[in-house]
Amino acid sequence: MKGWIGCAGALLCIACLAGCDSSSRTVPAEFHGAEELVVYCPHPLEFINPIVSEFEEQTGIKVEVCTGGTGELLKMAEDREKPECDIFWGGSLSTTMAQSELFEPYISKNESMIQEDYRNKEGNMTRFTDVPSILMVNTNLAGNLSIEGYGDLLKPELSGKIAMCDPVTSSSAFEHLINMLYAMGEGDPEEGWNYVEAFCKNLDGKLLQSSSEVYQGVAEGRYTVGLTFEEGAAHYIASGYPVRVVYMEEGVISKPDVVCIIKGSAHMWEAKKFVDFVTGKAAQTVISESLGRRSVRTDVDEPEYLLDKQAIHMIYDEEAVVKENKLEWMRRFSEVFQGTLK
Known about the structure:
Elements: E1 3-6, E2 37-41, H1 45-59, E3 63-67, H2 70-79, E4 87-92, H3 93-96, E5 126-138, H4 139-142, E6 162-163, H5 171-184, H6 193-202, H7 211-219, E7 225-229, H8 230-238, E8 243-246, E9 254-261, H9 268-278, H10 281-290, E10 294-295, H11 319-339
Parallel strand pairs: 2-3, 2-4, 6-7
Antiparallel strand pairs: 1-3, 4-9, 5-7, 5-8, 5-9, 5-10
């Protein structure tokens, strides 16, 4: 467990959410009032706090958030650790899909406004945002070195200067593993393992344990380049750090993350309200305009400060193949990385 945060005192607020319909304040008999909705979430705190704070304000439902890596939190949810999780909010679809049996069937009231590619076709996997994998480059450290894709990460000048998280603990790192297998294998993930072996050698024995270590490490100058997700870099660009986003020239896979109700939640009504709230137009608009994420809704525009997806070389994985091979690919990556330490 990485830590607990109290969201009622969040530093940020989402003013435009105040316009949500009055029905959100209607509290039925099954509302548990004094108890708290427990949310397991791997998102950064600066992303979590404003959304949860406004949810509490609008609904009167108190929320307790447990943060950590996606893999760690999924294990906690599976093991039913105390406090028992009601909502799993975050983690890429590729990571969470393999443990979909943990989640309660629920179709959000907003489902008809979700982009067709991101519909909850499983019945218990509500998509939350659209998250491209990207490279984050520290422009001061990179200097004149060209970094435009995965191929450039094999340059000797970057040995030991690449921030990569362990795919076993981080869903964003697992997404990058999938992305590089398909991109460098030209659509055949098995053909991408030669690249993975060369890439792991250039990590020079450095593999991080959390997503935040990647984007923080690049922003603060400990690494020249990091493999992360779009929002992680966008936050630092907006804050004036010497970093830039690179959409890999070999191809970018963009996968949604999810917001799901844990099966058997003791706070089912409150949990459904949370899913509906974070997928609603007001929350999704703020997520797009202010928090560095792309909405999954059809009626919310892409952020103006992010590159239009039409300008990115998008590629696609095979969902069934990824689900079937998730554990094997994690095991194989660990084996390859460990082999570079000998």
